[in-house]
Every structure is written in structure tokens, then in C-alpha cells.
Amino acid sequence: MSTFMAKPQEVQRKWYILDAEGKTLGRLATEAARLLRGKHKPIFTPHVDTGDHVIVINAEKVVLTGKKLDQKMHFRHSGYPGGVKLTDYRTLLQTKPELALEEAIKGMLPKNKLGNAMGMKLKVYRGTEHPHQAQKPEVWEIQS
After folding, report:
1. Which of these, 34, 95, 87, 88, lies nearest to 59 by C-alpha position?
2. Cβ atoms 79, 58 nearer than 8 A
3. Does residue 29 belong to any structural domain of this protein?
């Protein structure tokens, strides 16, 4: 028996919707990263992008447990000396909830060209509206 290796042209991609309403940030991010990477498929191959497209809706309704809203910080740097900008997650989720979810999900993907390609298949929206109806996305239920 030889080991099966998926080829990029053989991969069938689907579109999935994840609803973030009432879901924990980390648990939602791991499920989204799993779908983007393709680990839910039997043809998963580590060096080939076998993942699907993921649409996350209701990003503003994601939940953080414990004291993370006030203690967890979002880090930015302008590139200049003294250019560090820190924002707590309470403020970040009120102003840019899409960014908080996107960073959590992309942080769980590989840090290389393959991971960048997987990250391009992620779409995050604040509310329930999204412009991807033509792709006929399926709802993916997260087991909590």
C-alpha cells in the first residue's frame, strides 16, 4: 500500500457558514481553522491546501470567558520607536469584532505561504448579512 497524497487539482472546495453568536472565541477559532486547513476531510494532506471556504457571521456576538475582556490585549506596532498600541478586547470587540476573530483564526494556521492561502479563504462579518449567497454555503454546526 502506498500513502495517498492529495493533488491540488483534485480538491473539491465547499463553502461553510459558522455562526459566532454565543460561541467562545477560541472554540470557534479552532473549528474555523480546522475547516480552512481541511482536517475534516479524509483526503487531508499536510503540504496541500485541502481546506474549504469559511464565512463567519455575527462576529460582534462572540463570547470571551473569565476576565479576558479586560485583561487580554490586542497588540499593534507602527514600526517606529515607541509605536506600540495596546487595546483591551472589550474595546476591540465593540469597534472591530471582525479583526479579533480573524486574528484568532489565522493564528491557528501554519505560518508560511500555505497558511496565507488558507487565510485568504476566511471571510468574517459583523452581522448576519454576507455577499456570498451565490456560492450556496452550508451551515456548519459546532459541537460544544
Report:
1. 95
2. no
3. yes
For residue 30, the domain's CATH number is 3.90.1180.10
C-alpha cell at 30: 479552532
- What is the four-CA torsion angle of 93, 134, 34, 104, rounded to 10 degrees? -20
pTM > 0.90: yes or no: yes
The residues near 144 (Cβ < 8 Å, ≥ 6 apart) are 23, 24, 27
| 75-108 confidence digits (pLDDT tens) | 999 999 999 999 999 999 999 999 999 999 999 9
User: In total, how many domains does the chain have?
Assistant: 1
- Give residue 136's region: left, alpha or beta (phi > 0; psi -120 to 50): left
Helix, strand, coil percentages in the chain from 3-state DSSP, rounded to 5:
35, 20, 45
H/E stretch holding 76: strand 73-77
